[in-house]
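Internal tracking record. Fields below are filled automatically when a chain is submitted to the structure queue. Please do not edit lines marked as system-generated. If the sequence contains nonstandard residues, flag them in the REMARKS field before resubmitting.
Queue: standard
Priority: normal
Entity type: single polypeptide chain
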Amino acid sequence: MKKIISFLFILLCLFSQAQVTPSKCVRIANSTTAFGENITRGTIITDATTGKVYSAFLGLASTKTIATCTMGSELIELTGSLSGSIGNANIQLVGVSDITGSTTEQPLYPYTNLTPTGSHLLIMFSAPFTVSGQNAQDVTVWLWINQVKIRKFKMNIYSNTQCMSFQHMQAVTPGVQVRVDVTWVINGTSLMQYGASMSERTLSIMDLP
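SYSTEM-GENERATED OUTPUT FOLLOWS
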């Protein structure tokens, strides 16, 4: 009897553990440009021309484009509206300046004040980080909501360039202003976040019901 109870307890523990699958953020030039890589389900896709953001509901071939995907079954457009200091429907901030990392925490984006109409904000961040020489560096990125650290993301950049991306869903009160900050810190002095060409850092924020 004790063996049966122990087995049931272990089985219950296994089923109770959260099953989390990492997702990815990609940025495409426009709706007619091929993805260039296979897109897995759950990937967040940003159209750089229109600023629209989509979620892949199914796995998509590298030859597909946003325009050739079937909306509602292959891609889902994440729509919403935001009002505030930046009056776009879906805010997308793209950093184009080069930034050198520091052992002192510093802004990766200047703060952004938003007044949501819905009850949730979907915050998506993506940026490649480059380490010079062969010096591996740790980069830590913090997401702040209303000047409180909400989430921490850390990666070891061991050679050349590696990309960090994350998504965060934040419950908010409609009509009440929200401040969003992103900061970063490294454990050395040889890490860069380049803002030129395809190395831009992107912060997308969407207002959702």
